[in-house]
Design brief:
Number of strands: 11
Number of helices: 4
Strand content: 25-35%
Radius of gyration: 40 Å
Helix content: 10-25%
Largest sheet: 7 strands, antiparallel
Order of helices and strands: HHEEEHEEEEHEEEE
Length: 201
Amino acid sequence: MRAALTLAGVAGLLAVAACGKQEATNGAAQQPTSNPVSQPASAPASEAASTAAASPEAAVDAVLGPDGIGPYKLGSSPADAQAAGARLTDTFASPGCPNTADVEIPKGTVAARLYFSAKHGLSAIRLLGDTHTAEGISNDSTMIEVKKAYPKVRNATGAANLDGTNLAPVAGNAKASYRIDGFSGEVDYVYLVLADNDCKL
């Protein structure tokens, strides 16, 4: 009788142990995974900088000289200017230069007027607005400032005060000159012109 009870007790213990093992297994199967969700890698700083630099809205330098202004170069054709965004007109045409265009650099700011010769292409560029030459001369400059910026400036009639038409060499471009018209000690107009051109400005 005692042996039978002992065997029954052992059998009960084995049954309880089996149930506990099964519950542990089920609990392990329901445990959520701890692997994190992968996040997309951010673009390298150098790549972001390259993208910004390639933006079509990048600023264009509106400085006159030595070979033009922005994308508009002396000697280029009217078609080249149109491809760069200029709209040609005859509104300000002069003898020898039947086509002109007022161009915005940057967009929204009128910076210069282009004069096209049928023979020489873009022959003259006149400053408009606040645009200036590489040496800082603008339509608001004085003739004293012109003399300092261009010590070799020469007046067409020899006037010591530089009244009238004056020509100054362009650093870095022997085929062009700055034409600076003065009156009463003040600058009236500033042009970058081909030395060989047939525009009557």
